[in-house]
Amino acid sequence: MKKNTGIISLILTVAVTAGLLALAAVGVGENKTGAAKNIPLGLDLAGGVSITYQAKGETPSAEEMNDTIYKLQKRVEGYSTEAQVYPQGDNRINIEIPGVTDANAILEELGKPGSLSFQDMSGNELLSGTDIKTAEAKTYKDNLNNVDYEVALTLTDEGAEKFAEATAANIGSRIAIVYDGETISAPTVQNAITNGNAAITNMESYEAAEQLASTIRIGSLKVELEEIQSKVVGAQLGADAIRTSLLAGIIGFALVVIFMIVMYRLPGVAAGIALTSYVGLTLGLLNAFEITLTLPGIAGIILGIGMAVDANVIIFARIREEIGAGKSVKGSIKTGFQKALSAILDGNITTLIAAIILSLKGSGSVKGFAHTLALSIVVSMFTALVITRLVMNAFYALGLQDAKLYGIQKERKTINFLSKKNICFVISAVLILGGLAVMGVNGSKGKGALNYSLEFQGGTSITIPMNEALSIQEIDETVKPVVSEVIGSNEIQAQKVDGSNDVIVKTRALDLETREALCQALVEKFDVDENQIAIENIGAAISSEMRSDAITAVLLAALFMLLYIWFRFKDIRFATSAVAALLHDVLVVLAFYAVARLSVGSNFIACMLTIVGYSINATIVIFDRIRENLAVAGRKADLQELVNRSITQTLSRSVNTSVTTFITVAVLYVLGVASIREFALPLMVGIVCGAYSSVCITGALWYVMKTKLGKKN
C-alpha cells in the first residue's frame, strides 16, 4: 500500500466509523432513522402490550392449556422473539409483547382466538382447526412467470388422513374455511391431496395471504379464547437500568481500548478503531433487522466484543512472533493475519453454528439471544479481518514501520502445564461435585435444587391501584421494599400500567395468609383501596415446552459443534475434549448458581449460552496451535512437550482476552442495577472459569485421550 493510499484508507475508515456512530446517536430525517433509540427493546427494558385471554366454556385441562400457550408463543414471536405467554389462574392466558404501545392494533392483527373448521358445501365439518399444524403466507411464480401469493398449509398426521378423504370426495367443489361462524375463504378443490400439504392459491396480495394464514393459525388452538383485558405496561427494569447499562458499556469499552493500546501499542490503536466500527455496525444492523434487544441480547453483544478483541489479540500475537523470528514488519503483518485466520474462523464458525441452531430450535429469549449473538459474530469477524488489517496496512504505509511500535515476542520458556493436570482435574471435580451436592441438599430440604425464578415456576401477580402515578424508579424505592418485607424475598418484578396509576407486582407464589398481610401493608403504607387490589396466581413464563426447546437446541448445538471440530481437526479427540471442557464450564457456573442461590430465569439461560460460546472459542485457539505444531513436528513429536509449548504460546491470548471481556462485564456489575448485577456476577465467574479450563483442562484432556485412548500418531 502506497502512502497516499494509506492516508485515504485511514481517513475513509475513520470517517465511516464516525458516520456509523453519528447515525446511531442522532439518526437521519424526521423519524431519526438508524438512531440507536429506535432499536426495539424487550419488556425488561421498554415495556409493551399485555393482553389477557380467558377460555370460553368449561375450564380446559392442563394439557389443553399448555398446548394453547405453546402455540400462542410461536404465534406472537412474529411480533418479537422476546414475547411472553403464560397462564394466569386456571382458565386465563396472559400475553406480553415488547416494543409496542397500541394494544388495539395488536388485538386486531393477532385476531380473536376462536373455533375454526373446514366444511363442505352442505355445512358438514370435514376438519377442525386442531388438524392444522402450520399455516404460512408465501409467494410463488405461476406458469406465465407472474408473482402470485398463497397460503401453505401443513396438516397433522390425523388431519392429513381426513383431508385426503375430504379432497378426494370434493374435487371440483369448494371447501369452506369457517372461523367463528363466518366463512373466511372457500377455495375450490383441484385434486385429491394425500401428502398432508396443501396450498390456497391466487390470493389477491401477500398481506391478504398473511391475514388468512394468521387466522387459520390462531383458530387451530385447542382452547377457544376471548379477550377480557388489554393494557400497556412499563419496563420491568426501567430507564435507570438502560442508562446505567449504557454508561457501563461506554466505560468498559474505553477501558478495553486503553488496555489494548497499553498491551499492543500501535496495533492496539488499530484494534480500537476496529472495535469502534464493531459498535457502530452492530447498532446499525440491530436497527435494520429490527432485532429486539433485551438483557440477554446485551450478553450477546458483550460476547461479540470479547470475540472481536480475541481475534485482534490472536492476530497481534502472531505478528509479534513473526517479528521476533526476524521477519520484516511488513512481512510479519501479512503472515500474522494468514496464520491467525484458521483459529479465528474455526472459533467464530463454531460459535456461529451454535447461534444458528439456537435460533432455529429455541424459542423466546433463547431465540432472541441467538439472533444478537449471530449478528455480533459476523460483525466481529468482519471488523477484525477487514478493518483491523486495513488500518494496520495504512499505518505501515504512513511510515510507522519501527518494530518497536508493534512489539517483539521473545521466545518464552515452556511452562509444564501438564505436570499439574491431575491437580486441575481434582479441583474441577471438587467444584462440580460440590455444586451437585449443594443442589441435592437444597432439594432435600424443600428449598429447590436451584433458586428458580418466577419465569420458571410462576407465582402471584398483584395489581395495586396507587393514588398517584409512580415511575419505575419510585416503584423500586417505595413499593418493592414493602412487598419484600412482607413476603420475605427480594425476588420481585414490578411494572407500571401506562394510562393509569396501577402498579403490577409479581412475586413467588403467596399463600392466603401472606396475601392478606400484603394487602394490609399496602393499605397502611399507601392508603390504597383494598377492594381494588387484584391478586391472582400466574404460571411460568418459560413453559415446559420452551425449556424443552432450549435443552434440545443446546444439545443439538453441542453435537454440531463437535462434528465441525472433528471435521476441521481430523481427530475426534479434539472434538470430544472441546465439548467436555465446555460442559465443565457450564457445570462450574451451575454450581455457583446453586451455592450463591442466584435467581434462575431467562437471564440464567442467556448466561449459560454466553459461556458456551465463550468457552468453545477459547478452546479452539489452543487446539489450532496444537494442530499447527503437530504438523511441523511430525509423528515423532514429544506430545507432552508439544502441548505445553502450544498452551504457553497462546497464554497471552488466553489471559488478555479474558481480561478484556472481564473488564466489560465487571463495569456492568459495578454500575448496573440489582437485576443486572445478578446477571453479570455469574458471567464473571464463567469468564474466569473459561480462562482456567482453556489453559489447564482442554490441552490436558486431549493429551490424556491421545496417549491413553488411542495410538500416538
TrEMBL record:
UniProt subcellular location: Cell membrane
All residue ranges annotated as the Protein translocase subunit SecDF P1 domain in the record: 66-121
Superkingdom assignment: Bacteria
Q: Where is the SecDF P1 head subdomain domain?
A: 124-223
InterPro entries for the chain: SecD (IPR005791), SecD/SecF_arch_bac (IPR022813), SecD/SecF_bac (IPR022645), SecD/SecF_CS (IPR022646), SecD_1st (IPR048631), SecD_SecF_C (IPR048634), SecD_SecF_C_bact (IPR055344), SecDF_P1_head (IPR054384)
Question: Keywords assigned by UniProt?
Answer: Cell membrane, Membrane, Protein transport, Translocation, Transmembrane, Transmembrane helix, Transport
For whether the record's keyword set contains Transmembrane helix, the answer is yes
Q: What is its main location?
A: membrane
Domain Protein export membrane protein SecD/SecF C-terminal span(s) in chain numbering: 521-707
Q: How does it sit in the membrane?
A: Multi-pass membrane protein
Q: Which residues cross the membrane?
A: 241-262, 269-289, 295-319, 340-360, 372-401, 422-441, 550-567, 574-596, 602-623, 655-674, 680-704
Q: Does the keyword Isomerase apply?
A: no
Q: Which family does it belong to?
A: Belongs to the SecD/SecF family. SecD subfamily.
Q: What does this protein do?
A: Part of the Sec protein translocase complex. Interacts with the SecYEG preprotein conducting channel. SecDF uses the proton motive force (PMF) to complete protein translocation after the ATP-dependent function of SecA.
Which NCBIfam families does the annotation name?
2A0604s01, secD, transloc_SecF
Known partners and oligomeric status: Forms a complex with SecF. Part of the essential Sec protein translocation apparatus which comprises SecA, SecYEG and auxiliary proteins SecDF. Other proteins may also be involved. Forms a complex with SecD. Part of the essential Sec protein translocation apparatus which comprises SecA, SecYEG and auxiliary proteins SecDF. Other proteins may also be involved.
Q: What is this protein called?
A: Multifunctional fusion protein
Q: Which organism is it from?
A: Laedolimicola ammoniilytica
> Which gene carries the instructions for this protein?
secD
